[in-house]
Design brief:
This protein is mainly alpha-helical. 57% of the residues lie in helices and 1% in strands. Strands 1-2 form a two-stranded antiparallel sheet. The longest helix is centred in the middle third of the chain and has 19 residues. The relative contact order is 0.14.
Amino acid sequence: MIIPAWLKKADDTIPAWLEKISLPDMTGRFKFCLNGRTRAGEKAALGFSCFALRIFYTIGLWDKLDSGKKLEWIKFLQSFQSADGAFIDPPILENCDSWKERLKRILLRRKGHRGISQRQSVLNAETKQAIATLAQASAQALYPFKDFSRYPYDLKKYFADLDWTQPWSAGGQAAATAAFIKNEAPKFLSKEDADLLMEEAVSFFKGTADPQTGAWFSGRMPAHYQIINGAMKALTALDWLECKIPYPEKLIDTCLLSLPEQEGCHIVDYVYVLYRCCQATDYRRQEILKYLENILNIIKRHYQPDGAFSYHETHNQTAYYGVKIARPMRQSDLQATFLLCFAIAMLASVLEIEDLKWNVIRP
């Protein structure tokens, strides 16, 4: 496939946009967007730095970066890690301790809600993203992260207790744990114990995949976006666990039932599911190619005049883990630019787009 003119232009304009939102006196520090940032949006830094590094890696800028700048950026990310191994960005985590969140936790417990608190969920997600980003840069965290189930029985119970009626959320928490097992467990557990955790995690995902849809959920059939977004998280876990997809053909059938909603996360999740399944089978390949061409046209509508991508078609992302970080404006933002560059890199691989040498990351 010949590279579309707009995408060829984006290949040139995204680096210039990244330059505009970078803080020149602090390597690795980036603004979330050009305009309309809130106080929390001005202060938050960890997640935005991870997004930027992953964009750099995806579009080929990381390899061109001076080795000294690379080291400074890695040290900047490492500076967010506490001695217990967690990565903490106060402006984001503090929101989880607000009176509203505390009240919400109390009400959810009274209703018998399963799973972990919002605070722990955010902490795990931020830590997982930082560890994965450092791994992409061939670096590691300074301290091992140990706050996850270390015994097979506990791990099995943890996975089972997640609320799989909401597979997007449950899958995200399970995927974070899979990343910790792969990256962190070998740092403080024996090889035998770390391998047992890997085996238990693989067993869970193999044993709970739905043979009719190829996805992971419990109870009544969730909304289509929940099924696919949850499957994306589960496939991420399987990637870390180096495990084959149980039912790739069924998952393809399920994904092709409808196009994603026009938001950054939905778009990239649908593309990721098909990308991973295409690595396992040639099933319905021509239909997949047509489907992915349609998604590429959807992504085009998120390309903004400032040179990068917006989370929504008409405006930037406004919240990060529930924290208001920017006002809605017709402009690009870091989260969308990362997500849609990632999606384009996968699309380019499957569609064989000429003259676009972008790299697919491990999410």
